[in-house]
Design goal:
It is built from 5 helices and 5 strands. The chain is an alpha+beta fold. It has a 5-stranded antiparallel sheet.
Length: 129
């Protein structure tokens, strides 16, 4: 698949969008993923700037991701390799935000995330408990 996969219409949608390629080790275990494209809302919701991350891996851009309780790389690897779709809410410790995420694989070894920042909603729910 061409690294310039972006569908231009996704740039203006009201949610964050990112397109990635999973990186596997010699045993086909997901060990990293590369940023191929993101939209403006991705930059706003994550604080990661497009010009600094495109073509780089998540471990290069967010080294602390491996310290998160949730294994983002393994999770996204399952989607990219097996072609499953997932819809979930998760807090990213390394980014300090909670997201509602839909992830799918348009082609083997690639995955797309579409998400919104629900940090304020999550904090409100926690404060009510």
């Amino acid at each position: 698949m061409n690294d310039k996969y972006i569908l231009n219409g996704l740039q203006n949608l009201p949610f964050a969008y990112s397109f990635h390629k999973i990186i596997l080790d010699e045993n086909n275990k997901p060990i990293d993923y590369k940023f191929l494209e993101v939209n403006t809302l991705f930059e706003e919701m994550t604080g990661l700037k497009k010009e600094l991350i495109i073509g780089k891996t998540v471990k290069e851009c967010i080294p602390d991701i491996v310290k998160d309780d949730f294994n983002w790389i393994e999770f996204y690897g399952e989607v990219a390799v097996n072609g499953v779709d997932r819809d979930f809410e998760k807090h990213s410790e390394s980014l300090g935000k909670t997201y509602r995420i839909y992830v799918y694989s348009p082609e083997k070894y690639y995955f797309v995330t579409i998400f919104i920042d629900i940090s304020n909603i999550s904090k409100t729910k926690e404060n009510k408990k």
